[in-house]
Specification:
Blueprint lengths: L7 H25 L1 E2 L10 E7 L3 E3 L4 E9 L3 E3 L5 E2 L4 E3 L6 E7 L2 E14 L3 E5 L2 E10 L4 H5 L3 E9 L3 E6 L14 E11 L2 E3 L4 E12 L14 E3 L3 E5 L2 E10 L6 E2 L2 E7 L4 E7 L2 E2 L1 E3 L36 H57 L2 H19 L9 H8 L6 H19 L6 H20 L1
């Protein structure tokens, strides 16, 4: 009979459990323990450096900042985005890191570069940093047999820290400062586009101004167009895209004496040259003609030259002039009567056709008016202000065009005043028409969202105007 301690099958489970317990307690922590203490001989093999594009800059100038992780033959894991102190600056976010190589003192390092921009918001002696970055490095350990048996790796969690950077921020110089300088800092180009260049009074002209370049676009404001008299102007819409700021403004010429879109000026401070620069674009020629229905019409007659004299001809009979001949007179009277009869018949036919044409136009306009009012009411209920004001504008144009025999495309407030006021139309109605057109212009060209209350007021004004003019 064998002793119990020699029965391996009975004790195998206990031995296996004992081995696993020893691994968990003694070996595993040594293989996978994370340490924050980097050996002294490795401190030159992993480090962090922060650099600024400039150490002397101007307020609101955009400064490139790079934070670079250097490693020499180490396995780096779990690299997190850096943080850095930037009191007195505004800072952007980091993009994707750029991995590369760099040689310092004949040692080639693997680099991971993080880039961002900082913008100083005050002047004086400021500081950037220090930057802090957290990562882990995996190191081979050979000082313990158990570590070597199980792979011998140690994970070191590091909090790397860079040096801080002193930066002097200067104010804008007062010498040579242009009167139109609004704080733009950088190096920019200015382009202008005007469309269309041939319009009628009251038609919109789009002026697109593009400012593009290298600098702080947040400091760029839209240049003011020097248009005072002869234009109705709306607030520009502004879009910032990539390295450009686009300002689009709508101008409505109010007189046909306009010959050009005025010049545009834009001033900025160039920090590289340390001077102010002003860009100027000369006036853009345009052609503005009178609205439809107001063109000058002149009746040109055919003058009878003095050289033309009465025909002194005579008939065969001696002593008798042609106009006294009975046959000649009878023939001419017959031709005259025939011409008058044909003219009367023609006018009668034209009158009949005109009556039916006006009647058909009146029926068609009535249907279009009802259709337009229903569409406007539908847009009002849906809260679509842009569609609502577009329908209101077209409906009122078509109605007034039919009512007063004016081409609808050329109807403006000025024309309506010239047509309606002499006919004794109530001043309140004239004011309502003017307010409706202005509300429509604001919604169509100034990109201003109107609320339901304003839309209902405009719709009520339109119904009052149509009700009044139908009675007239």
């Amino acid at each position: 009979m064998k002793p119990k301690f020699c029965d391996f099958s009975r004790n195998s489970k206990k031995i296996t459990f004992l081995i696993i317990t020893l691994c968990v307690i003694y070996i595993a922590p040594r293989c996978f323990a994370a340490s924050t203490d980097l050996p002294a001989d490795l401190q030159n093999r992993v480090f962090l450096i922060m650099k600024a594009e400039k150490t002397r800059a101007y307020q609101d100038e955009r400064i490139l900042l790079t934070i670079t992780l250097y490693t020499d033959g180490l396995t780096v894991r779990d690299v997190r985005y850096p943080n850095f102190s930037h009191e007195g600056f505004s800072a952007g976010g980091f993009g994707n890191p750029i991995e590369s190589y760099e040689t310092i003192d004949r040692v080639t390092y693997n680099t991971m570069e993080f880039r961002t921009y900082v913008i100083p918001k005050k002047t004086g002696d400021l500081k950037l940093g220090p930057a802090v970055l957290q990562c882990s490095v995996l190191l081979q350990s050979s000082d313990n047999p158990a570590d070597a048996f199980f792979g011998g790796h140690k994970i070191h969690t590091l909090n790397l820290k860079s040096e801080e950077i002193p930066i002097r921020i200067l104010p804008f110089p007062q010498k040579g400062k242009p009167s139109d300088f609004e704080g733009a800092v950088g190096n920019f180009n200015l382009t202008i586009e005007v469309q269309p260049k041939e319009v009628k009074v009251g038609d919109p002209v789009s002026v697109k101004i593009m400012i593009k370049g290298n600098g702080n676009l947040d400091t760029v404001t839209c240049p003011e167009i020097e248009a005072k008299d002869g234009f109705r102007m709306y607030e520009p819409s502004v879009i910032q895209k990539d390295s450009a700021k686009i300002c689009e403004q709508v101008l409505l010429p109010t007189t046909d004496t306009i010959r050009e879109i005025p010049a545009v000026h834009f001033s900025f401070f160039d920090p590289d040259r340390e001077t102010y620069l002003t860009l100027k674009r000369e006036p853009t020629p345009i052609k503005v003609s009178k609205p439809y229905g107001e063109e000058d019409s002149k009746i040109t007659g055919i003058a009878r030259p003095d050289s033309i004299k009465k025909y002194p001809g005579k008939l065969i009979r001696k002593g008798e002039v042609l106009y006294k001949n009975p046959v000649f007179l009878t023939f001419n009277i017959f031709l005259l009567m025939l011409f008058i009869s044909l003219l009367i018949v023609r006018k009668r036919k034209e009158k009949i056709k005109g009556y039916y044409r006006k009647y058909a136009q009146r029926l068609n306009t009535s249907r279009e008016l009802k259709r337009g009012m229903r569409a406007a009411e539908r847009a009002l209920h849906e809260g679509d202000s842009a569609e609502f004001y577009t329908i209101i504008f077209r409906t009122l144009q078509d109605y007034l065009g039919y009512k007063f025999h004016i081409p609808p495309g050329g109807i403006t407030v000025g024309i309506i005043y010239n047509v309606l006021r002499p006919r004794g139309v109530n001043e309140e109605v004239l004011k309502n028409i003017k307010d409706i057109f202005e509300d429509c212009d604001m919604a169509r060209y100034a990109s201003i969202e109107s609320g339901r209350t304003e839309m209902e007021e405009t719709f009520d004004m339109l119904k009052e105007v149509i009700r009044y003019l139908n009675r007239e």
